[in-house]
From TrEMBL:
This is Cytochrome P450. It comes from Streptomyces coelicolor (strain ATCC BAA-471 / A3(2) / M145). GO terms for molecular function: heme binding; iron ion binding; monooxygenase activity; oxidoreductase activity, acting on paired donors, with incorporation or reduction of molecular oxygen. Coiled coil: none annotated. Gene3D superfamilies: Cytochrome P450. GO terms for biological process: pigment metabolic process. PANTHER family: CYTOCHROME P450 YJIB-RELATED, P450, PUTATIVE (EUROFUNG)-RELATED. Belongs to the cytochrome P450 family.
Length: 420
């Protein structure tokens, strides 16, 4: 695996000074009630707020829906190649956010024609997935997971259902076995690299992920099959093994962790909101509305780092220096009061930014595939266990300690035991 490259462009912009009112992107307030903090930041700073990343590294958090849309639509002004960053001289080699921002030969960091070439390979590889077959496979996976706890009358739905189902679906799509020690370790290392907890080593975890995907690519070179990896390997664009490894990591990571939290956050909404209480068991419309509302109000990817200013520019009344880092606040943008002036988010609307926007948005048809996985997971669970209820009060549920991902630490539930 190619090492993460933190080196700057040959001509680096001068470092941006720390704003005197910069707010650390950390702490319990962010982790448990981020919407309140976004509201406070917006009131004090407007659509673009000065923030501090881990270790006091300065950046800008883009909070406004128009501003996030503008940044993601103008790659010529706000680019993805992180080697432009004017702060590399302050970044230690074990910085916890390095897996996010250290330059890699991945589609995530490419620009222009190269990005279109790489994204085109992913798009065609994903387009080869039959959505009806995917739904059928996910239903079988869901049935197996449910069978493991159905007889007990209780379950912890995050670790026992919401996380393993999209994990197994993602690795199966890529041609890996969906069970086994190596697969479980891969998923755990992906979690660490994307959403490290205290004591985790995200850089080491990311290295292990790369080594495992390298093994998969070598295997598929020798024995191709009807899977995403094989289609990427045989695409006329002729990507190198290293390019395919990096892009597969992006595909699997996007398919597993965000989809798992989308499932969990939707189940939480269905089990705690009285608007859905009368129609959760098998109600397709209610499930669809809940899935979409979650993307507006509790989107799995809360914040994304990031974009880097190509030149000095203005955004939201702020002077952005060349090389400054911008964190995209998808969760804040989705609840922008300019978008919803009466604080009512219309769940029937799908113009949220949860899959980003512009050329670097989640490539088609990935959002459709994620919807198939999430919808099948939720509907199957509610059909199999129609009297499913929370095992505790809604206010006792807690969120994972992350400003990047929005997901529950646990979702304990009770139901009438089902005998196989």
């Amino acid at each position: 695996m190619t090492d993460i490259d933190p080196s700057p462009h040959p001509v680096a912009a001068p470092g941006c000074p720390v704003h005197p009112d910069a707010v650390p992107l950390a702490g319990l307030e962010y982790q448990q009630t981020p919407s309140e903090l976004y509201r406070g930041l917006r009131a004090e700073h407007g659509a673009v707020a000065p923030v501090l990343l881990d270790g006091g590294i300065p950046a800008w958090l883009v909070l406004g829906y128009p501003e996030v849309s503008y940044v993601t639509s103008h790659d010529e002004l706000f680019a993805r190649d992180s080697r432009r960053w004017n702060q590399w001289g302050s970044i230690p080699p074990d910085w916890p956010l390095l897996p996010y921002v250290g330059h890699q030969p991945s589609v995530l960091f490419t620009e222009g024609e190269e990005h279109r070439r790489r994204a085109g390979v992913i798009t065609q590889a994903l387009a080869g997935i039959d959505q009806f077959e995917l739904a059928r496979d996910c239903r079988h996976l869901a049935d197996r997971l449910i069978a493991a706890f159905a007889g007990s009358g209780r379950a912890e739905l995050m670790s026992g259902y919401a996380h393993p189902l999209p994990m197994r679906a993602a690795v199966r799509m890529c041609g890996m076995p969906h069970t086994g020690v190596e697969t479980r370790q891969l998923v755990e290392d992906l979690r660490i690299s994307l959403d490290a907890a205290e004591g985790d080593d995200p850089v080491a975890a990311y290295t292990r992920v790369g080594e495992r995907i390298h093994q998969l690519v070598r295997h598929k070179r020798e024995r191709p099959g009807p899977d995403v990896t094989s289609r990427m390997l045989t695409h006329p664009a002729g990507l190198t093994d290293e390019e395919i490894v990096q892009d597969l990591i992006s595909v699997i990571a996007a398919a597993q962790q965000p989809t798992a939290n989308w499932i969990g956050n939707t189940l939480r909404l269905l089990l705690t909101d009285e608007r859905f209480a009368l129609n959760v068991s098998g109600g397709r419309l209610s499930v669809g509305e809940a899935l979409n509302e979650v993307l507006w109000l509790d989107t799995p990817t809360q914040n994304f780092i990031g974009r880097w200013a190509v030149n000095d520019t203005q955004l939201g009344g702020r002077h952005i220096r060349a090389g400054d880092c911008l964190v995209l606040g998808f969760a804040a943008a989705n609840t922008d009061p300019q978008l919803w002036p009466e604080a009512h988010v219309g769940a029937e609307n799908s113009a949220h930014l949860s899959f980003s926007n512009g050329e670097h948005r989640c490539p088609y048809p990935a959002p459709l595939l994620a919807d198939v996985v999430a919808r099948t997971a939720v509907e199957t669970l509610l059909e199999r266990l129609p009297d499913l209820v929370l095992a505790l009060e809604p206010g006792e549920l807690t969120w994972r300690p992350s400003i990047w991902m929005r997901g529950l630490t646990a979702l304990p539930a009770l139901f009438t035991p089902v005998v196989a």
